[in-house]
Amino acid sequence: MLDRRMAVAKALALQSGAMLREAYAGDKVITHKGRIDLLTNFDLQSEGLLVEGIREAFPDDAVVAEEAHFDSDQAAYWLIDPIDGTTNFAHGLPDFTICIAYMQEEQPQLGVIYNPARGELFSAMRGGGAYRNDRPIKVSQQSELEQSLLSAGYPYNPGTVDFDLFGAWQRIFYRSQGIRHVGCASLTQAWVAAGTLDAYWEEGFRPWDFAAGILLVQEAGGAISRIDGSPDIFREPCSLLASNGLLHDELLELLNSDGSHADGMRQRR
Ligand code: IPD
Ligand code: CA
Predict the structure, then answer these.
(1) Which ligand lies nearest the alpha carbon of 184?
(2) How many whole angstroms from 1 Cα to the centroid of ligand 1?
(3) Are 145 and 171 in contact (CB under 8 A)?
(4) Class of CATH domain 145-268
């Protein structure tokens, strides 16, 4: 059944992707969900297409999607971000994805992340490895921070963050080859899974932004934890350090070296 769900998720991501690839450089209707949190008419169109497609293929499945705020009290449900990286999309930047996960007992079992502008279709099923365009991918083997290219995400509302975002940036920037801000959580994780980036962290984002990505990183051999080192990434405020595994402990130390999150660090050791 998970195989069938994967086939449907990929087909729907490609279908919505074809529409978004045509649309991202053109005119859009843009409104605000928050002060800097945008919504375009294409977020809604993409969500409509994905939700309808899933309901048609699996009428009994529960669906949770970012824009319509469907909810689920089921143990298993689809979790959908119709455009991850809406700000990039709204400005005509190519770094955005369609992001689909299938969740069971609060753990992603299947993840599909499609970046239509670059033609990268990432996919993973629990226990089945991670793939880009159906070819297996692995995290990098980089263990030297100085040789690493990293990425940090910044939430729309800094009030949701429980650690020193910009202090961490300063502590880590010149010890690495740089810190990119991609502006699309799912794509950033997919690039960690593919070994293009070596690690990524963000706090204060939402489950549909990262559920598919954490499965990709795990299935590609990487490590995930909260930024404080503890395991429950979905606990609000959602918090993630995703890495190739080799850099994980050093980054945890640096991310937390201002003394915040001391409890989590102790819990992990
Ligand atoms: C956002 C993007 C961004 C991240 C934000 C997310 P959205 O998702 O993934 O990179 O920094 O925290 O909310 O709103 O474009 O779906
Ligand atoms: Ca979104």
Answers:
(1) 1
(2) 30
(3) no
(4) alpha beta
**Architecture of the domain spanning 2-136:** 2-Layer Sandwich (3.30)
Yes or no: say if 170 and 255 are a contact pair by the CB < 8 Å rule.
Answer: no
pTM: 0.94
Best of 44, 181, 209, 236 for a ligand 1 pocket test (most atoms within 8 Å of beta carbon)? 209
> What is the overall mean pLDDT for the chain?
93
How many whole angstroms separate alpha carbon 102 and alpha carbon 79?
6
Quick check: CB of 84 below 6 Å from ligand 1?
Answer: yes
Average pLDDT over every residue of 58-80: 89
Residues of the chain with CATH 3.40.190.80: 145-268
- Decide if pLDDT at 216 tops 50: yes
For ligand 2, the distance from its centroid to the CA atom of residue 36, given in whole angstroms, is 13
Ligand 1 touching residue 17 (CB < 6 A): no
> What are the start and end residues of each CATH 3.30.540.10 domain in the chain?
2-136
Mean pLDDT value of segment 232-247: 96
**Which ligand is closest to the CA of 157, given by its number?**
1
Length of the chain counted residue by residue: 269
**Can you spell out the DSSP letters for 119-131?**
TEEEEEETTS-EE
> For the residues 40-61, what does the mean pLDDT come to?
96
